[in-house]
Design a protein that fits this description.
Strand content: 5-15%
Structural class: mainly alpha
Strand order of the largest sheet: 1-2
Order of helices and strands: EEHEEHHHHHHEEHH
CATH architecture: Orthogonal Bundle
CATH class: Mainly Alpha
Shape: globular
CATH topology: Cytochrome Bc1 Complex, Chain D, domain 2
CATH superfamily: Cytochrome c-like domain
Bound molecules: heme C
Helix content: 40-55%
Number of helices: 9
């Protein structure tokens, strides 16, 4: 579990750690993120999207820059990439197929995402973090990006709770954490089961009458 959490969402590392924190962003990137809810391959979700929607987007440029400069001056944490996980060739091909069918229309065939709308999978340290509960949250409940004056689409991530069981979600997430040049630990099926219960997400539909 991440050190802190808000409303079932884990708060990410926003220190100047380049590999696993916010250090890959320039102050300009962070100002843009706080103003419109997205920058490069990152899109705000959950309580962060709410904070941007209801508050940060209305701050003036000078105040946003002061926040960004302060946050990016914080000393880097010591959070590092975890060792990766490798599926067998067959399983990897099966998961790529699942990704292509279910995810690629939005997240891109090479995990590149859509700028300002859908987060990238490739090279995104939110995807590879060892505090991966937000990924399970997104898969089970879906999530919506901030609706701001600049970005009005507020793209949505659909819930896959009805379509995938705990093992399928764990495997899909493990796959994206290690695809497209990423490197991340395996997502445990027990963590998915626990969160499905805690969040009250529905079970996979196994029969049209369910
Ligand atoms: C209809 C478009 C769409 C589809 C299909 C889709 N996603 Fe998403 N996904 C999004 C959007 C948009 C967001 C960002 C939502 C937000 O900011 O709240 C997102 C967010 C996520 C996140 C959270 C990323 C983060 O930075 O915390 C994960 C993980 C994710 N998607 C994985 C998947 C996987 C795996 C699939 C396929 C099984 C999939 N998505 C299918 C649009 C989609």
């Amino acid at each position: 579990m991440a050190p802190t959490s808000a409303g079932g969402w884990a708060s990410p590392d926003i220190t100047s750690n380049k590999e696993m924190g916010a250090g890959w962003m320039s102050p300009d990137d962070m100002v843009e993120y706080l103003k419109i809810g997205a920058t490069h391959g990152t899109v705000a979700s959950g309580p962060m999207a709410e904070a941007i929607e209801h508050s940060f987007q209305y701050l003036d440029e000078k105040d946003l820059r002061a926040i960004a400069t302060y946050v990016l001056s914080l000393p880097p944490s010591d959070l590092k990439k975890d060792p990766g996980f490798k599926f067998s060739k067959d399983k990897e091909a099966e998961e790529y197929h699942n990704y292509e069918v279910n995810c690629s229309a939005c997240h891109g065939v090479e995990g590149e995402g859509i700028k300002g709308m859908v987060p990238a999978i490739a090279g995104n340290n939110r995807i590879t973090t060892r505090y991966y509960t937000n990924l399970i949250h997104a898969m089970l409940m879906g999530t919506r990006a901030a609706h701001t004056q600049t970005l009005q689409t507020a793209a949505g991530m659909p819930s896959f709770a009805w379509k995938m069981d705990d093992q399928q979600i764990a495997d899909m997430l493990t796959y994206i954490r290690n695809a497209f040049g990423n490197q991340g630990s395996r997502v445990k099926v027990d963590d998915v089961a626990k969160m499905r219960k805690e969040l009250g997400a529905r079970q996979k539909v196994t029969n049209v009458k369910d």
